[in-house]
Known about the structure:
This protein is α+β, with helices and mostly antiparallel strands. It is built from 4 helices and 6 strands. The longest helix has 14 residues, at 149-162. The two termini are 49 Å apart. Mean pLDDT is 87; it is low at 1-16.
Amino acid sequence: AEPDGGGSAAPAPVGHHRAAPVCYLVGRFPEENQARAAVALFRGPRVTTEFSMREQQSAHYWVHTPVQASRADALHLIRDLNAKGLRDVAVVQTGDWKNSVSLGYYSNQASADTRVSQVKQLGLDAAADTQQESVMTYWVRYQAPGDSIGTADGVWQGLAAAHPKLTREGVSCR
């Protein structure tokens, strides 16, 4: 058999192969409307998306002085703290801690403990209390065939540039 000299038609594929899907979870969006906008950006002819919400517990650490006898005493304490170089302090106006001095909110225990030590080294009393808070977060899950993930990656890069705190992690496809 002689080779076909002038045909330009490619041989028909024996089997049609599609690349395995690739799945990612993108979040945590602080606002629902941001996540829903991302769903719309990812959506395409071969990309499926899913929106979800999660309630997460978040701990914060509040550093404060004991309650003072009066507002005047709390203001006097603030003047003392300012004179010793401590700024960003305020009198608590209402509630169980009225007339104490707030010395800051911290996202981790080590930072709060450092602030308590700093105040105690000045000869003043301070404590750190843990405060639990429920926070709603929003996520987008997307799935794209491996051979068309480029478009979704472009969307991800745009989102990451606009929202630097977002993360993307590979997840198993369902």
